[in-house]
Design a protein that fits this description.
heterodimer, A: mainly alpha, 21 helices, 71% helix, globular, disordered C terminus, B: mainly alpha, two-stranded antiparallel sheet, 22 helices
């Protein structure tokens, strides 16, 4: 296995953990906010460093299929590779770090006292570690660990934790049961029984929010801080778990069946987003629709659908992340936002209005934005895999587009909201706005790098499950074409 | 360096490099240098880049300035920027036409390389200059330039002056991209940009709820239209493996054929027809057109009198070989066109404001253009689009001063202008006239039918599902409500917007 030039992966996780401990010791939340931002910046730098190092590790060729840290201290300690970087995880780590950085950066002074920076850094460490892992049990452990921070926050806010706890308990139980069966049947070959697959799929459905297992997420958006809910949802940890835990063991027919359910869920969530009267819940359903679309693409298991799904994953994380941050910034100014009235905020914050529109449209795959090519590929691949039902993605996307513009008109148009204080955009927010807009537009106008990188990841995933698939393997396809 | 950039960012880098190289040579201005360049294609490529690039640069300049600056650019700078962008594009497109005629080359495909290329999938960025696209793009530049000059005075000191021109430039980018598209994907890109700019300009006066409501209505119909076009694009990909027009349509417009089978052509053609019907406000989607008049007059003129409303017809003209493959499809287009023309005539006669009258007059003409396309009169349809677009723009721009114009005319002729009324209708019975009037004033009840039989049941179903979810979540939470901030009082719901 290739080695990076520096222990980037371990360093990024360690920095986040040290940051969590350090910031947790600070009593003043304003100081904690600044220190947290410092650690978030360091983590972002290390993850970007890891990505660049991985891409250029081979002087004149493609990146390796896998790479681990320089020195491998954790590998030496555990006796086997723990943190690994591959084509799938390379950009995802930077993406996760960027989301945490931006959430930390755009937390306004009015919200600082309600937001736990220490726990956010701890959760960043867990998510980064999850995205570096390939070992199933370690992933399961980290996924379970990731459920703690939202629970503690709900408790701290005096909110009811019933919905969250019940879903997460079922999620962890299903993961453990499914993986235990996988281990138990392990010696009999790559094909596993439904006893192993179904519990894992239920767990994945819960984490990704596929109907009818999605209510915990809308409840979380209702009860937790917007920042925390955003960070639980946005990195699409469930999609990662699907690739690592389910795709290597589930036969094609199971995935196709589940893919159909995901498509139905995508249209359903898009429809429900349309009738929401609360901005947070609207955002939640918009996210659920795209989460289901990504899952449908992953489960279609064709090279194009997988590449499309991975591209949409990146695009949705950035665009919906930005969209969520915009809503959060508006909430910080106006309190919980209702979509029943026209709020008339355009003249106060035209930059946020523009960002709202750009990120919202990017999330629905509007031309010229990050999500466009990915959505096209995903639709193409889904129609190939599910000839008639695949068009559901187009309907879901159309409904989401309507929901986004409906929300835009509700929030930014109408009689101008009168305020005694300036509601204008701050410097930190402006930086976040411009960075995200640039990322969305540059990614949309020059999509080749992202698409080819996601295609490499898709090919690797398909190669790993070639023993299970009834379709020709990548090698056979290539050979056939020659 | 060029090779490395090409590897990372794709082939378009090389094309741009070539183009800039030639621009450098042209800038030196000596005739003999041009004759040294034997590659005519490169000249076309540079002109093509200018035609497409000028509006893009114009939009990028206005958009980035709006985003980065705390205060918008001055009206003068905005006007100059728009003027430069449109005149550059117009001169380049007229030069392109001149050179095409001079070199007797009636079809010039310009490829900007693969935008995305991975195994089994490519996304080519390609433009096609031919007898259909060049007149359309020249019309776009001329009318948008006229509207830009008009709006510069009409919207003087208007709070949304900058926003109007940003959206107008986005519209120009969309129109140029759609007109010149050489692949379905490129066409779809422009199609969506036109839709977005239209909806946002309808909601331009956004301090009142009505424009926002109508903007959303327009957007909803456009999304249906976009979905149909995207499905057509996917279907073409699956049938022929790619969406390039030169693979789907063989020969030069209008004498083109298609390798698609009749049943394939019918299937794709129906999807394209739905897309075209949404964009051109054909029956039963006509309800959005009068609503779109909420926007400022210059945008109404350019969108719903001249260009945007003709895009559906343009789409059908572009894919006209598919129509040739299926008599049933052509019949369907004729029926839709004639129905719309008749509907628009009746609805237009009872309108009481000039912009609505003009919008229905536009619609009746577009209906006729559809019928012409269905009958296979492609050149007539194209000429009809060009002529109608110009006349209607003039009428829209004169609309705010209509009373002044009438008075001037009456002063000139020395008497009142004659009243024109439907003589044939005055001979009908009272009950028939009342029935006709109600039907016309309600615009054929098309909006009500769509609302009551499609939108409302759909929303009721979704609201019930949402209520069930709330009940389920509440039960899991032990019937304890969430402690959230109260939301403001109720007001119009989604179906009231439709």
């Amino acid at each position: 296995m290739s080695e990076l030039h520096f222990p980037w992966l371990e360093m990024s996780v360690l920095l986040a953990l040290i940051g969590a401990i350090w910031v947790g010791r600070l009593r003043d939340q304003f100081v904690a906010s600044r220190h947290s931002l410092f650690f978030n910046t360091l983590v972002l730098i290390t993850t970007v460093g890891a990505w660049i190092d991985y891409e250029f590790i081979n002087p004149a060729g493609r990146p390796p299929s896998e790479a681990q840290d320089f020195w491998n201290p954790l590998t030496k300690l555990m006796g086997r590779p723990v943190f690994i970087m591959d084509p799938l995880s390379a950009p995802l780590l930077s993406l996760v770090a960027l989301l945490y950085f931006l959430v930390s950066l755009t937390t306004l002074r009015t919200k600082i006292r309600r937001f736990s920076f220490a726990w956010t850094l701890a959760s960043e460490a867990i998510v980064l570690a999850t995205f570096c892992c390939e070992s199933p049990w370690l992933i399961i452990g980290l996924l379970a660990g990731g459920t703690v921070q939202p629970y503690l926050e709900l408790r701290a806010r005096g909110q009811n934790t019933g919905v969250y706890v019940k879903h997460m308990a079922l999620f962890i139980a299903m993961l453990v049961i499914g993986q235990s069966f996988v281990d138990y049947e392990g010696s009999e070959g790559p094909v596993h029984s439904l006893w192993a697959i179904i519990p894992l799929l239920i767990a994945i459905f819960i984490r990704t929010g596929i109907a009818p297992f999605h209510c915990w997420l809308s409840d979380l958006f209702d009860r937790a801080t917007f920042g925390t809910a955003l960070l639980v949802a946005m990195p699409l940890v469930g999609a990662y778990a699907t690739i690592r835990l389910v795709l290597p063991i589930a036969p094609d027919w199971v995935l196709r069946t589940i893919g159909l359910l995901s498509l139905i869920s995508a249209v359903y969530a898009a429809g429900i987003a349309l009738v929401q009267t609360d901005a947070r819940r609207f955002f939640c359903y918009l996210f659920l629709s795209y989460s289901a679309i990504v899952l449908a693409g992953l489960e279609a298991v064709t090279p194009i659908s997988l590449t499309g799904a991975l591209c949409v994953w990146m695009a949705v994380s950035i665009s919906l992340g930005g969209f969520g941050l915009t809503l959060r910034a508006l909430e910080a100014r106006r309190g919980r936002l209702s979509l029943q009235n026209f709020q008339g905020l355009y003249d106060h914050t035209p930059a946020l209005a523009v960002l709202f529109m750009i990120t919202g449209l990017a999330s629905v795959g509007f031309p010229g934005t990050f999500g466009f090519v990915g959505t096209e590929m995903l639709v193409d691949g889904a129609v190939e895999a599910f000839p008639y039902v695949g068009v559901a993605i187009v309907f879901a996307s159309a409904l989401n587009g309507i929901a986004v513009v409906h929300a835009y008109f509700r929030l930014f148009t109408g009689t101008r909201h009168t305020s005694l204080v300036s509601l204008g955009i701050g410097k930190r927010e402006k930086f976040a706005v411009i960075s995200l807009t640039a990322l969305i537009l540059i990614g949309g106008l020059i999509p080749q790098y992202n698409v080819s990188s996601r295609h490499r990841a898709a090919v690797r995933i398909l190669r790993e499950r070639s023993a299970l698939s009834t379709r020709p393997t990548i090698e056979e396809e290539t050979h056939g074409n020659h | 360096m060029l090779h490395q950039m090409q590897t990372v960012f794709g082939e378009e880098t090389r094309t741009m490099f070539d183009a800039f190289h030639l621009l450098g040579l042209l800038a030196e201005g000596t005739g003999h240098q041009l004759t040294e360049i034997e590659d005519v294609a490169l000249v076309f490529k540079v002109l093509g880049l200018l035609v497409v690039g000028a509006p893009v640069v114009m939009f990028a300049t206005l958009g980035i300035a709006s985003l980065l600056r705390d205060r918008p650019l001055s009206e003068r700078v905005i006007a100059r920027c728009v003027q430069t962008g449109i005149i550059t594009g117009l001169i380049a497109s007229i030069s392109m036409l001149g050179l095409m005629l001079f070199w007797n080359d009636t079809q010039v495909p310009i490829e900007f390389g693969s935008w995305v290329h991975v195994k089994d999938y490519h996304f080519v960025f390609k433009f096609e200059f031919d007898k259909l696209s060049v007149p359309f793009v020249i019309l776009t530049f001329i009318l948008c330039g006229t509207i830009g000059a008009f709006a510069n005075r009409y919207l003087h000191r208007e709070r949304g002056f900058n926003r109007f021109f940003v959206l107008l430039s986005l519209f120009v980018v969309g129109m140029v991209t759609t007109s010149l598209a050489g692949t379905v994907e490129t066409l779809f890109t422009g199609w969506e940009l036109v839709g977005l700019s239209s909806a946002l300009l309808v909601a331009f006066f956004h301090e009142r709820p009505a424009p926002a409501t109508n903007g959303l209505h327009v957007w909803i119909v456009y999304r249906v239209s976009d979905a149909a076009l995207l499905l057509a694009s996917v279907a073409l990909h699956h049938m022929k493996g790619e969406g390039d027009f030169d693979k789907l349509l063989t020969g030069e417009w209008p004498m083109v054929g298609t390798p698609l089978e009749p049943n394939q052509a019918f299937f794709v053609g129906v999807l394209l027809l739905v897309a075209a019907m949404g964009k051109s406000a054909m029956v039963p989607f006509s309800g959005w057109l009068p609503r779109a008049m909420e926007g400022p007059t210059p945008s109404s003129a350019i969108f719903y009198g001249a260009l945007s409303v003709h895009l559906g017809a343009f789409l059908l003209l572009r894919f006209s070989p598919l129509l040739e493959q299926s008599i049933a499809l052509r019949g369907l287009i004729v029926v839709v066109g004639v129905l719309t023309a008749v509907f628009a005539y009746f609805a237009g006669t009872v309108q009481t404001d000039i912009k609505s009258v003009l919008s229905f007059a536009s619609l009746s003409q577009v209906g006729l253009i559809f019928a012409e396309i269905g009958f296979g009169f492609r050149y007539i349809a194209l000429v009809h689009i060009l002529g109608h677009g110009c006349v209607r723009t003039l009428q829209f721009l004169r609309a705010p001063t209509l009373l002044y114009d009438y008075r001037t005319m009456e002063d000139a002729i020395g008497e009142r202008l004659p009243k024109i009324s439907g003589a044939w209708l005055s001979r009908a019975e009272e009950s028939v006239r009342t029935w006709y009037y109600r039907l016309a004033i309600e615009r054929g009840y098309l909006d009500s039918i769509l609302k009551n039989y499609i939108v409302y049941p759909f929303l009721v179903f979704l609201r019930r599902c949402d209520a069930l979810e709330h009940a389920w979540t509440k039960m899991l939470a032990g019937n304890e409500p969430s402690k959230k901030a109260p939301t403001s009082e109720a007001s119009p719901t989604l179906e009231e917007l439709l």
